[in-house]
Amino acid sequence: MSVLTYREAIKQAQADALAADPTVFLLGEDIAAAGGAFKVTDGLMDAFGSDRVMDTPISEQAIIGAAIGAALKGARPVAELMFADFAGVCFDQIANQLAKYRYMTAGQVSVPVTIRLANGAGQGFGSQHSQSVENWFLNVPGLKIVAPGSVEDAYGLLRSSIADDDPVLFFEHKAMYNVKADVPPELVPIPLGRAHVVRSGDDVTIVASQAMRRRAEEAADKLSAQGIAAEVIDPRTILPFDYESVAASVTRTNRLVVVQESSAAGSWGATLVARMAAECFESLDLAPVLISAPDTPVPYAGALEAAWIPGVDDICTAVLAMDRY
Amino acid sequence: MDYPERWEIDDDPSLDEAALLEMLRAMLEIRGLEDEIQRAFTKDLVRGSTHLCTGQEAAVVGACSVLRTTDSMVCTYRGHGAVLAKGASLAATFAEIVGRETGLCGGKGGSMHLTDAGVGAYGSFAIVGAHLPIANGLALAARQQGSDAVSLCFFGDGSTNIGAFHESLNLAAVWSLPVIFFCENNLYGEYTAWRATARVDRLADRAGSYGMPGVRIDGNDVIAVRRATGQAVERARAGEGPTLIEAVTYRHRGHSRTDPAKYRPDGELERWLKVDPIRRLENLLATRGVSPERLQEITAAARDAVRDAVEEALSAAPPRLEALYEDVYA
Ligand SMILES: Cc1ncc(C[n+]2csc(CCOP(=O)(O)OP(=O)(O)O)c2C)c(N)n1
Ligand SMILES: [Mg+2]
Question: Residue B327 domain-assigned?
Answer without folding.
Answer: no
